[in-house]
Design a protein that fits this description.
The structure holds two protein chains of two kinds.
Chain A: E1 2-12, E2 16-26, E3 30-34, H1 41-48, E4 56-61, E5 67-70, H2 84-90, H3 95-98, H4 103-106, H5 115-126, E6 133-137, H6 145-160, E7 166-171, E8 183-187
Parallel strand pairs in A: 3-7, 3-8, 5-6, 6-7
Antiparallel strand pairs in A: 1-2, 1-4
Chain B: H1 2-7, H2 9-31, H3 35-55, H4 62-80, H5 86-106, H6 111-119, H7 127-146, H8 148-160, H9 168-185, H10 187-201, H11 208-232, H12 238-274
Helix pairs in contact in B: 2-7, 2-9, 2-10, 2-11, 3-4, 3-5, 3-6, 3-10, 4-9, 6-9, 7-9, 9-10, 10-11, 10-12, 11-12
The chains are: A alpha/beta, B mainly alpha.
């Protein structure tokens, strides 16, 4: 069943950045949209998120579809102490989801956590409410090689555990680097 | 001396309340990288109050109304202008500072009002004004606590994820706190208690909720302690005493906190070695 169906769409603001794109998001999909800077990755994401309309063509959404969006993480240090567990509590993430992160990691302060650990916490913050599709913008930024693999395993577990129907990621990382056969790749030129 | 202290009992309550409320709100704003915006908005509130006084000198409460209007006007300007950054806030602050000084040059009688705006007049506030400020701050504090989860989420979204989301109700709470604090306690106290606690003592306690509690307690102690000192030693000025006590308390907290952390990590290391 298609959750989102975009056929032959032109995306952009005033002039098209990409023409004739076809993208469908199905239940169980793990989609990676990659491409060089300026290729329109973020514009495509914003179009799918209904933030900007497609210049040409139509995007069809399944009835009652809900989605969450996790923007790009900024390099930021809190001037006030906050633990990863406290962030999950602020977002009222259920304990069943909190258990994805080991207890000792939950006690880490935001400033001492690795890029991958921070991303996992923020992904869980988006799953606190029932969501069909999770859109992630550059989730592998500020994450080292080992962290990328861990984050990928975590995202696939969340997807396989049916905590979410599908995941759409935009990233400058090429799909080959993510070592996963489950990824549906969309490369923008 | 006891009689003198009892005369100012409402002022002590007001100082305690403001001392708790301002660092809590300030911690959110500083976390959202709005420290310089606070400075510019404080100056906007002060200039608004001067304009109100210049136009209707004898009308009671007019400076408060103009102060709030000017504050909101500049805040909306910041929100609408997407290109606002640190340099932009400094420019706004300097322009408003120049505007305030020009007004004083034209209307010299505003000089005393400007001084009140800078340093506040908590000891000379009427009982009715002090009680009203207590009631206002009490209500704001309750609302701040009640909506804390939503406010905390906005802080995280705005700081870590660069969201531009605005929660109007929260902005209104901050505007009211800011303006009433400027009116009763002055610019130096208000800006000082908004920014200093989070910047100096934000990482003393290793948890979010614990940090807010710590900052609130430090704020209340320093605000009431500074007032007590200025009552006891008549030559001491209230607000500078409050700010100095605040800094000393926070630095002391920082030293104690880092010592405690050292001892704790040593104990943990020993425990791991034993295991």
């Amino acid at each position: 069943m298609n959750l989102i169906d975009a056929s032959n769409i032109d995306i952009g603001y005033t002039s098209p950045l990409q023409k004739g794109l076809n993208i469908s998001v199905e239940s169980g999909d793990f989609i990676l949209i990659s491409g060089p800077n300026g290729s329109g990755k973020t514009t495509l994401l914003k179009t799918l998120l209904k933030e900007i309309p497609a210049i040409e063509g139509r995007v069809v959404y399944n009835d009652g579809l809900s989605f969450s969006y996790l923007p790009q993480l900024l390099k930021y240090e809190f001037p006030i102490s906050i633990t990863l567990k406290e962030i999950l509590e602020i977002y009222e993430v259920p304990s069943s989801l909190q258990s994805f992160i080991p207890e000792d990691v939950l006690d880490l302060l935001w400033d001492s956590a690795s890029g991958g650990q921070r991303q996992k916490v923020l992904v869980l913050s988006r799953l606190a409410k029932t969501t069909d599709i999770l859109f992630l913008d550059e989730p592998f930024n500020h994450v080292d090689r080992k962290g990328v693999d861990e984050l990928m395993t975590f995202l696939l577990t969340v997807l396989e555990g049916r905590y979410i129907k599908s995941i759409v990621i935009i990233s400058h990382i090429s799909p080959q680097k993510l070592n996963s056969d489950s990824i549906k790749s969309v490369v923008l030129q | 001396m006891i009689e003198l202290f009892s005369l100012f009992k409402l002022s002590f309550v007001l100082c305690c309340l403001a001392g708790i409320l301002l660092p809590i709100q300030g911690a959110h704003l500083v976390s959202r990288k709005e420290s310089l915006q606070i400075l510019a908005l404080a100056q906007a509130g002060l200039v608004g109050s001067l304009i109100g006084k210049a136009l209707w000198y004898d009308l009671p409460g007019i400076s408060l109304v103009f102060s709030l209007l000017f504050f909101i006007l500049i805040k909306v300007f910041f929100i609408m202008n997407k290109r606002t950054n640190e340099a932009f806030y400094i420019v706004t602050y300097l322009v408003l500072l120049a505007l305030g000084q020009s007004m004083i040059a034209i209307f010299p009688s505003l000089d005393s009002h400007m001084a009140l705006g800078l340093f506040g007049d908590i000891v000379s506030l009427s009982e009715v004004s002090t009680a009203s400020l207590i009631a206002i701050f009490m209500n704001i504090l309750v609302l701040q606590m009640y909506f804390s989860t939503k406010i905390e989420r906005i802080t995280i979204e705005r700081s870590i994820l660069g969201s531009q989301k605005i929660y109007i109700f929260e902005e209104l709470l901050y505007a009211l706190t800011f303006i009433f604090s400027l009116y009763g306690l002055g610019l130096l106290f208000t800006v000082g208690l908004y920014i200093i606690p989070c910047v100096v003592g934000g990482k003393v306690i290793k948890s979010f909720s614990g940090s807010f509690l710590f900052l609130g307690i430090m704020g209340a102690f320093s605000a009431s302690g500074g007032l007590a000192l200025s009552i006891y030693f008549s030559k001491l000025s209230t607000v500078p005493s409050q700010i100095i006590i605040l800094l000393l308390l926070l630095l002391l907290g920082k030293i104690v906190g880092s010592r405690y952390e050292k001892v704790r990590s040593n104990l943990k290391r020993k425990e791991i070695k034993c295991n």
